[in-house]
Each structure stands twice: as structure tokens, then as C-alpha cells.
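Appendix B, record 7
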Amino acid sequence: MPAWGIALVVILPIVCLIVGGIVGFAISQKMVKKQLKENPPITADQIRDMYRQMGRTPSEAQISQIMHRMRNQDKK
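C-alpha cells (predicted):
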């Protein structure tokens, strides 16, 4: 077997695995970030319920402020 044949059999699969792993990681990271942006882990209704459980009635300004902070935290 010529030297270039050995290189194809040994090195090419290793390089393909490494490149595939990097590309797969980048795509999955992008998809997770997109899903979290579209479907945040906590909603305004959940924030209202937490305030009620603490015995407080939140104003809409407080709710929007908390939601704004959470969106900005995701951008960091």
C-alpha cells in the first residue's frame, strides 16, 4: 500500500471526526440559544405567581423590569 493510502485510511477519519465534532457542537449550541430565546425558561405569569407566594402584588413595571433583566442577562 502506498504512503498516501495509509494517510487516507488513518488520518482522514480522525480529521473528519474532529471537524464533525466541532461543527456539531457549533450547530447544537446555536439551536439551544435560539430555543431559549424563543421559549424563555420563565414567563411573566411565573414571576407573578412567585410574587404572590411571597405575599406581594407586583406591578406591571416590576414584571417588565424583571423580564428585561433576564433578556439582557442572556445576551452577556
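Remarks on this record: The radius of gyration is 24 Å. The longest helix spans residues 3-38.
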